[in-house]
Each structure stands twice: as C-alpha cells, then as structure tokens.
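Re: beginner question about structure tokens

> Can someone show what the tokenized structure looks like for a real chain? I only ever see the sequence side.

Sure, here's an example I had lying around. Input first:
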Amino acid sequence: MRIISWNVNGIRAVHRKGNWQDMVALSSDILCLQETKAREEQLVDEIKHPEGYYSFFASPTIKKGYSGVAIFSKIAPNKVESVMGVDHLDTEGRLLVAYFDTFVLLNIYFPNGGGGPERLAYKMEFYKEFLAFITALRKKHKNIIFCGDVNTAHTAVDLARPKENEKNTGFLPEERVWIDEVVASGYVDIWRHQHPDAVDAYTYWDMKTFARDRNVGWRIDYFFLTKELIKKVNAVDIRADFLGSDHCPIELDIEL
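And the corresponding structure tokens:
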C-alpha cells in the first residue's frame, strides 16, 4: 500500500497550476492533503471525485480559505471522523480520522505557532489534546498511522539553520519536546528511523526567499507509526522533486 501525504498550500492553486493530475498519476492507494484552503462545495468535480477514489474533506467552520484537510482513498474506510472532541480545537478543519479493517489513519494539519503568543498557546494545546486523543485511540486499535504537516522540526538535523531558529516557532524547545513525548508514547518517525544519518533532507522551503533553490529547508512533514508497524514498512521517501507547493509530498510504502 502506498500512502502519500502533502501540504498543498491551496488545493485549487495546485489544480490551477497543473500539478493535480501529476499528483493523481503517482497512483497512491491513499492520498492525504493538508492546507487545502477550500470547502468541498468550492471544488471542481475533478478534485472532489478523482476516478477510483473515495474522497473526504474537513474545512474550517468559521473561516473560509484557510486550513483544511482531505483524504482520497481507493479503499473504502469503515468510517471517517473529523473531530477530537474539543470544541474550540475542532473548528479549523485540521483532522480526518479514517478507520480501516487493519489500521487507523489520521491526516493532520497541525497549527502554526506564528502570529503571537495566543497562536503558540493554541498550537501547544492542540498538540496536547491530539496526543491524548491518539493515546485513547490506541487502547482500541493497535495499528495507527498519523501523517501530515506537524509544523515543527524535531532535531537540529531536521532544518538547515538550527542556530538561527532556536527562538522561532517551529523549532522552540517546547514544540520539540512534544515530539519527544510522541516518540515516548510508542510512535516512530519512520522516515528518520529508516534514514538515521541523512542530512539536508527537507519537506518545506520558504517561497519568499527562494529557499528551495538553495535547499534551505525544514523537515516538518511526517509519518508516525505505532512500533508494531515498523516491520511492515517497505520504504519511506521524501519527494523533493515534486513541485506545486512550498512543501513536497512524503510517501510511505507499507504492507497493510
């Protein structure tokens, strides 16, 4: 099974630039998109119903053109949910949970901590409640995968300029400690697990400074798996060659 995760920074923009068909042509079994910036009714049929896929969307309830996630799956899930059960955290369309026969897949667009202390506090609360949510979920389901834009680089090797960003959101100590807690809870950053010594491997580059041309980036997009799934992984890849967003897709090949 091939699962692809990609922060598209606007699904309509990806379609307009001609990258949508390229994405579909990668023939993933499941495609998880973040930062779609559109409600379902704003999308053309080609996006809403790609041939061969079941499609599911979550978007903000109080703000248009913002946030949003989508899952496209060739396999029909048993059910799909879009909330954690915390009202003020469930209004921004950041979560889809798809329940399959042998695993649960969560597609997440975690908040960015920029914009002042209130948004950083919101991000940290979202982190806390999400970890509690998947901890409870694991009591019922052994095989869990969550993927998406976590908006934090875990260690110094996961961004090009760690020293310059020590006091910036996305690399703050409290943000990185949360990823430590995720790992301590039994989840594996599978890309880093498979590529422990890799450097200069990033999934996000600032567009304003043309950082992608110089590979001055951040690895902030992840697949996290419960430990039991490690032995089922065939490969995990960062598709830095794929254009269309300030992020690139990440890809997981796993036996499920």
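Each token stands for a local structural state, so reading them left to right follows the chain. The two ends are 7 Å apart (CA to CA).
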